[in-house]
Structure formats: structure tokens, C-alpha cells
């Protein structure tokens, strides 16, 4: 994330996280460090993985005190190893202590998502299939979590409900059927918008193709039906498969030939990457 993206999309969320952690004062820090004292602390990796969110980590400290200095020894997307020193943070010790948990929460969460994403992307190497995230994100964390997916080598699906048309089962039910839902979307949406339709069987797929859908999402279909769906969609629509896709079971989808695989697990099930701020001392 660059500075403009950070200020426009992230500062409000970061300040909210800081307010959650410091409602009145940091009573522990103020007890042991009542006045200014310059210090430094090291960011240490405690687990192998992919690092993501370094600019967010730095921003936490800058929002507390713009004079804080952060020197990084890696960049987002790098593979990092247990025991590796990733950064050195210098500034008011009170700021280093008060910002520690919030900064680490962001960095550990984002790095965990990037690490999990990279593991699945590696399984798709050699295919034309791209890995997508979903809107199954932590409230108020979407900008960070979707960025982490990209750092891990994945691609972003729509960012929010204003970003694209995806007719799912309940939209289709509300409209009265696939054909009606696609027709209504075409009539309402700007012509530059693609229309994606979620289907659960081949009959729904044929109806969506006939109605002129641009992308077909194959939801929880069998491998055999998905292969047939890809054949039917060739030259007519792009294909995306979804439904309980995880690192453990994605291998079964590799040979199907879909254009995209979407996985909510990237953002709702990725474990954190263990990181720590250590060796704090005055300078």
C-alpha cells in the first residue's frame, strides 16, 4: 500500500483499532515510563511464511507519533524464516509499547493470509486457473485482507456490493429464475458491467448461458459436472468454481480447467503468522 492508499482507505480503520486498545490511557506503559525516553525494538519472525502488511505495521506507530522511525530488512511478498530480524523500530518508548499489539495484530493477520494464499497459488502453478478471494472478510478489515491476498499471489474478486454484479441463489429466487434475474440485471446495470451468475447444476448453467451471462460460478458441483460445465461455457462465458475450497482439497480442482477458483478460506480460515517485537531497550 502506498501513502495515498493508506490515508484514503486505511487510516480510519487503524485509528479505530488503536481506540479499541487505548480507550483512556495505556495504564501499564504510563506506570513504568511516565516521561519521554528514546528506545528501539526489533521485529522478529517466529515462523516461516510470507510477510504482508509492513506499511500498515509502520502506519500504526506513525499515527501515534510521526517521528517514529521504522527500518525494514524485507518487503511485502518476501519469504521470511523463523528467527529472522524483519525490522527495527525507533522512537518514544511509550509509543513502541502502546502501539505494539495493534501493529502486530495487523501484520500477523495479513501475513497469515498471504502465506495461506501462496500455498494454494503454488498448487495451481502450471495451470491457467487464477485464485480469487471472496467477501467473507473480517468486518472493517477487508482492505487489509484483500491486499494480503494479492501479496500472496492471489487475485481479488469484487471488493464490495457496489463493485460488481453476482446473482446468487437468493437473488435468482427473488427475481423468479435465472433468465429473469439476468434480464433484470442487464436492464439495470451500466453496459460496462459484467454479469456473473451462480449455478448449482447444468440446467441452471444452460439457462444462464442462454440469458447471456458473462461469468458462470459453479457452486458446490461435482468434478464431473464442472468439467462438463467448462466444455459448455467454452467461448461463451468465463467459469469460476467455488464452495468449500481449502488448501487441503484444492488439488481435486486443478485439472478441471476453470478460469477461476474462489476461496473464502483465504480470509476466514488462514492462521496468523507468528511475529514478535523483542529486545526493547533505551538508546
Keywords:
4-stranded antiparallel β-sheet; TIM Barrel; 10 helices; Aldehyde Oxidoreductase, domain 3; single chain; 283 residues; 20% strand
Q: Number of DSSP strands?
A: 12
CATH superfamily of the largest domain: Aldolase class I
Helix/strand class: alpha/beta
Count of folded domains: 2
Task: Please mark out the parts with pLDDT under 50 across 5 or more consecutive residues, or reply none.
Answer: none
As a whole number of angstroms, the C-alpha radius of gyration is 23 Å
Structure description:
The protein has 283 residues and is of the alpha/beta class. It folds into two domains: 3-118 and 271-282, Aldehyde Oxidoreductase, domain 3; 121-268, Alpha-Beta Barrel (TIM Barrel), CATH 3.20.20.70. It is 42% helix and 20% strand. It contains ten helices and twelve strands. The strands form three sheets. Strands 6-11-10-9-8-7 form a six-stranded parallel sheet. Strands 3-5-1-12 form a four-stranded antiparallel sheet, with helices on one face. Strands 2-4 form a two-stranded antiparallel sheet. It is elongated, with a radius of gyration of 23 Å. The two termini are 30 Å apart. The model has no long low-confidence stretch (mean pLDDT 96).
Amino acid at each position: 500500500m502506498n501513502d495515498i492508499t493508506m490515508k484514503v482507505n486505511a487510516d480510519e480503520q487503524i485509528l479505530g483499532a488503536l481506540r479499541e486498545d487505548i480507550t483512556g490511557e495505556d495504564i501499564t506503559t504510563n506506570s513504568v515510563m511516565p516521561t519521554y525516553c528514546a528506545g528501539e525494538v526489533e521485529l522478529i519472525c517466529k515462523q516461516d511464511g510470507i510477510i504482508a502488511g509492513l506499511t500498515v505495521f509502520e502506519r500504526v506507530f506513525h499515527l501515534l507519533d510521526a517521528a517514529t522511525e521504522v527500518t525494514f530488512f524485507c518487503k511485502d511478498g518476501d519469504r521470511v524464516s523463523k528467527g529472522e530480524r524483519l525490522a527495527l523500530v525507533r522512537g518514544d518508548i511509550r509509543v513502541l509499547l502502546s502501539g505494539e499489539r495493534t501493529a502486530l495484530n495487523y501484520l500477523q493477520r495479513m501475513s497469515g493470509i498471504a502465506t495461506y494464499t501462496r500455498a494454494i497459488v503454488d498448487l495451481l502453478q502450471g495451470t491457467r486457473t487464477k485464485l480469487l478471494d471472496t467477501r467473507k472478510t473480517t468486518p472493517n478489515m477487508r482492505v487489509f485482507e484483500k491486499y494480503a491476498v494479492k501479496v500472496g499471489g492471489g487475485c481479488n474478486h469484487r471488493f464490495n456490493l457496489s463493485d460488481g454484479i453476482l446473482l446468487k441463489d437468493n437473488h435468482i429466487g427473488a427475481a423468479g429464475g435465472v433468465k429473469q434475474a439476468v434480464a433484470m440485471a442487464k436492464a439495470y446495470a451500466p453496459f460496462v458491467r459484467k454479469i456473473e451468475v451462480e449455478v448449482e447444476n447444468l440446467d441452471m448453467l444452460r439457462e444462464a448461458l442462454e440469458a447471456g451471462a458473462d461469468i458462470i460460478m459453479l457452486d458446490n458441483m461435482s468434478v464431473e459436472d464442472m468439467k462438463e460445465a467448462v466444455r459448455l461455457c467454452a467461448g461463451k462465458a468465463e467459469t469460476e468454481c467455488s464452495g468449500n475450497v481449502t488448501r487441503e482439497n484444492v488439488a481435486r480442482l486443478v485439472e478441471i480447467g476453470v478460469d477461476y477458483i474462489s476461496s473464502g478460506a483465504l480470509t476466514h480460515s488462514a492462521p496468523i503468522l507468528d511475529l514478535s517485537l523483542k529486545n526493547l531497550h533505551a538508546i
